[in-house]
Design a protein that fits this description.
90 residues; mainly alpha; 4 helices; 82% helix; 0% strand
């Protein structure tokens, strides 16, 4: 599974995330948006040793709910910071 992630999935994931973030921000904010993206990804990676034991304690369902709530909060923070009105258009 690790080889599948490294060879096939991670490069496509990384490219798609960077492309998505850079397409929603004005040209002069692209570097800041991608820097914020990688900062959030690094912080989430450092939380793994803390969250791992909680998953063992509480079960996978609560860990997924917590991760989803944190992702929604991060998305809202980016929307508020960069004023991404294009995302909210109907």
């Amino acid at each position: 599974m690790t080889i599948l992630w490294l060879i096939l999935i991670y490069p496509l994931y990384d490219i798609s995330v960077v492309t998505t973030v850079s397409s929603f921000v004005p040209k002069h904010l692209k570097a800041s948006a991608i820097g914020s993206l990688y900062t959030v990804m690094s912080i989430s990676g450092t939380l793994i040793p803390i969250v791992g034991p909680l998953t063992d304690l509480w079960g996978a369902r609560y860990s997924v709910l917590l991760a989803s709530a944190l992702q929604i909060a991060a998305l809202l923070a980016l929307v508020l910071k960069f004023n991404l009105k294009g995302i909210l258009k109907t």
